[in-house]
From TrEMBL:
<dbReference type="InterPro" id="IPR009003">
    <property type="entry name" value="Peptidase_S1_PA"/>
</dbReference>
<protein>
    <recommendedName>
        <fullName>limulus clotting factor C</fullName>
        <ecNumber>3.4.21.84</ecNumber>
    </recommendedName>
</protein>
<keyword id="KW-0732">Signal</keyword>
<dbReference type="InterPro" id="IPR001314">
    <property type="entry name" value="Peptidase_S1A"/>
</dbReference>
<comment type="similarity">
    <text>Belongs to the peptidase S1 family. CLIP subfamily.</text>
</comment>
<keyword id="KW-0430">Lectin</keyword>
<dbReference type="Pfam" id="PF00089">
    <property type="entry name" value="Trypsin"/>
</dbReference>
<dbReference type="InterPro" id="IPR001254">
    <property type="entry name" value="Trypsin_dom"/>
</dbReference>
<keyword id="KW-0130">Cell adhesion</keyword>
<keyword id="KW-0245">EGF-like domain</keyword>
<dbReference type="InterPro" id="IPR051487">
    <property type="entry name" value="Ser/Thr_Proteases_Immune/Dev"/>
</dbReference>
<dbReference type="GO" id="GO:0030246">
    <property type="term" value="F:carbohydrate binding"/>
</dbReference>
<dbReference type="InterPro" id="IPR018114">
    <property type="entry name" value="TRYPSIN_HIS"/>
</dbReference>
<dbReference type="InterPro" id="IPR043504">
    <property type="entry name" value="Peptidase_S1_PA_chymotrypsin"/>
</dbReference>
<keyword id="KW-1015">Disulfide bond</keyword>
<keyword id="KW-0645">Protease</keyword>
<dbReference type="GO" id="GO:0006508">
    <property type="term" value="P:proteolysis"/>
</dbReference>
């Protein structure tokens, strides 16, 4: 069962969520096809006071209704003032981009930047998107019912513009994707400081150990296609080391009540 939140009532957004019209993978599955992930957004950091329209790409996020974005708490900052929809290559204008201003940041009150507990945040757009007409290329991703779990080995996809080289923080120009499988909770107990919290986090791994989420992918979605019902936002990328250890995502199903209250 799925829940897709509306900006007004956090109910099904007119019955539409989690649909991608493009399903074909690009060779080797590294570069996402343009338009494949219509809920994918990029947050923008506006740090130039003399030119407020200038920004640098920051984190990822997911459209969950016509006016709300779900991302990571560690990505939230007062200078994150806009998000970009419909982007693919961050260095090119492709005609599908739409920049929307952010009016509110809602960071989970339990967020702890030392152990990454409750690493989740909501961003509210200044104006709702017109998903029927003007912004019909974009679509919210479905949300899971509260406290549901995924079986081990469930295949999902993480997306973002993060670094493709672990040793350097250099964003990818093109939107990337990597297939990850849900792994056992014990697999993610590899960092003594960032203790894995199995009731609030998901552990995911790619069997090709060279493929991971990395710096710059933070806040981006772990999208899981469950049967024929559409894509579901099961995780928000929180932390990892870009190398041979599994990736850790905030478990969205654990935060559905908070998301509903935060509207």
């Amino acid at each position: 069962m799925l829940l897709c939140l509306s900006a007004q009532a956090f109910a099904a957004w007119r019955g539409h969520c989690g649909n991608s019209t493009i399903f074909t993978r690009v060779i080797n599955g590294d570069v996402a096809e343009h338009g494949k992930w219509p809920w994918m957004v990029r947050t923008n950091y506006h740090n130039n006071l003399s030119n407020p329209s200038q920004y640098i790409p920051w984190c990822g996020g997911s459209l969950i209704s016509d006016q709300w974005i779900l991302s990571a708490a560690h990505c939230s900052h007062p200078e994150i003032k806009s998000v970009t929809f419909g982007d693919y290559n961050i260095n090119e204008r492709e005609g599908t981009e739409h920049i929307a201003n952010i009016s509110e940041h809602h960071v989970h009150p339990g967020y702890n930047n030392t152990n990454m507990r409750d690493d989740i945040a909501l961003l509210k757009l200044s104006e709702p998107l017109d998903l029927i007409d003007k912004h019909r290329l974009f679509e919210p991703i479905c949300l899971p019912w509260a406290d549901t779990t995924l079986g081990l080995g469930t295949k999902c996809t993480a997306t973002g513009w993060g670094s493709t080289v672990a040793a350097y923080y250099v964003l990818s120009n093109e939107l990337q994707e990597v297939e990850l499988a849900i792994a056992s909770n014990s697999t993610c107990n590899w960092d003594a400081k960032l203790i894995f919290q199995q009731n609030k986090q998901l552990c995911a791994v790619n069997h090709d150990s060279s493929k991971h989420t990395c710096k710059g992918d933070s806040g981006g979605p772990l999208s899981c296609r469950l049967g024929e019902v559409g894509w579901v936002l099961e995780g928000v990328y929180s932390w990892g080391n870009c190398l041979d250890n599994p990736d850790v995502f905030t478990r969205v199903s654990a935060y559905i009540p908070w998301i509903q209250r935060a509207k």
